[in-house]
Structure formats: structure tokens, C-alpha cells
Design goal:
Layout (H helix, E strand, L loop, with lengths): L2 E9 L16 E5 L3 E5 L6 H9 L5 E7 L2 E2 L5 H10 L1 E4 L11 H12 L4 H10 L15 H12 L6 E5 L7 H18 L2 E6 L10 E4 L1
Parallel strand pairs: 3-8, 3-9, 6-7, 7-8
Antiparallel strand pairs: 1-2, 1-4, 4-5
């Protein structure tokens, strides 16, 4: 997949907002593989909704979302499964880790499905992010900031053409945020992938190709 197109997309919930000012909604946009984007938004402007449209969890909008020349509303369940395993990675704002599993089990369960990263690489990222001592800790016993780092490692445990990260550093200090951004960008560049970062305030300090106001 080379491009993601938004063609006059507008969530149904905003249908009556005729005076809405946005660089995303009701616009014609192209997100290109290999480029880096920041989507900034105030609370309630539809940031997580935007992400959900890309990964196919919601379709409550007017307009079209296309992957290359294919309308995403035409994809089957099997098609979406393949896309999420091989073409689009997503780091949820709410993380969606399994609290009853350890940090390592949360990452390994994804990597077992994709068979993509080596265990050595995954454990190196744990170490770089300062959570090597949390491999065998239950996620339920970890801070949200520690969980964000686990969720990022899990998001990188697959091939992807695009990675979408929704407020990935909201609970991280600057040092850990910088390390996480470096790891993400190194892996994205290795895969030649596009990166879409969202934020309502604090965001990764990166050299974005395009910044959009939602």
C-alpha cells in the first residue's frame, strides 16, 4: 500500500457543523508511504475517530477513505485482518493491552502471529525504553507510561506500510519520549513506512513532513 486518501471525509457527528474549520475533515488529503505526519487536535475534534477510520473500526462518515484505489468500505473481515497484520499498525490511545498478561506476553502474542521480529530485537527495545526489568510484570501492575512503552513495542512487532500512533507519549517524560520516537522512526524507515502521529498537546519532537490541524 502506497497511499491513504481522505476524500471529503466528515464524521456523521459533525454533519451539522457547517462552520467547522479543519485541515482534515471535508478536505482531500493524501498520506504517502515513507512520509511523517502530525495531526493535532483539540479535545472532541475527532482525533481518535480519525484513527478509527484508517484502521477500519468505524465507518460512520460521509466521503471516502481509500487505500491506493480501493474504498475501505468494500473490504471483507478477512481483508481487514490481513491489512492489520501486514500493512497497518496502530497504537491505541487507550493501549488495549491485556492486563492479566505480562509485558512480555503482550508483545509475544502479537509477534507469534506475525513472526516478524526476533526475540532479541524485542528485548533490546525493552532495554532501550528502560523497562527490561518489567518483562515478567503483569501489565495491570505497571504505570500507564510503562504500558505506553510496551504498547509501542507491540505495535512494531509486525510489518507495516503505515503506522498510526494515537497520543503515544502522553504519560512519558521527555527522555523516554525521545527514545520511543527514535525507535519508532528507525523501524519505520527500515520498512519504508509512513507514520501518522496524533496529539492534543504534547507530541513527539520530530521533523514532520506535514502538520495538520484537525
Amino acid at each position: 500500500m502506497e497511499n491513504i486518501y481522505f476524500q471529503s471525509v466528515l464524521p456523521h457527528v459533525f454533519a451539522d457543523n457547517s462552520d467547522m474549520e479543519s485541515e482534515v475533515w471535508r478536505q482531500n488529503l493524501t498520506f504517502e508511504k515513507g512520509r511523517l505526519y502530525l495531526v493535532e487536535a483539540g479535545s472532541g475534534k475527532g482525533k481518535s475517530t480519525f484513527c478509527s477510520y484508517i484502521v477500519g473500526y468505524r465507518h460512520d462518515y460521509d466521503g471516502k477513505v481509500l487505500f491506493d484505489d480501493k474504498d475501505v468500505t468494500t473490504f471483507s473481515i478477512d481483508g481487514w485482518t490481513e491489512l492489520r497484520q501486514r500493512h497497518i499498525s496502530y497504537l491505541f490511545q487507550e493501549l488495549r493491552l491485556f492486563p492479566e498478561l505480562t509485558a512480555w506476553e503482550n508483545v509475544k502474542i502479537k509477534n507469534d502471529l506475525t513472526a516478524y521480529q526476533t526475540e532479541a530485537q524485542l528485548k533490546e527495545w525493552f532495554s532501550m525504553l528502560g523497562i527490561a526489568d518489567k518483562l515478567d510484570s503483569l501489565v495491570a501492575h505497571m504505570s500507564f507510561g510503562q504500558q505506553q512503552r510496551v504498547a509501542m513495542i507491540r505495535a512494531l512487532a509486525q510489518p507495516f506500510d503505515f503506522i498510526v500512533v494515537d497520543e503515544p507519549i502522553s504519560h512519558l517524560d521527555d527522555a523516554n519520549a525521545e527514545v520511543m520516537a527514535s525507535i519508532m522512526m528507525s523501524e519505520a524507515k527500515r520498512q519504508g513506512a509512513g507514520v501518522i502521529v496524533t496529539s492534543i498537546g504534547k507530541h513527539m519532537n520530530l521533523d514532520y513532513d506535514k502538520i495538520l490541524k484537525l
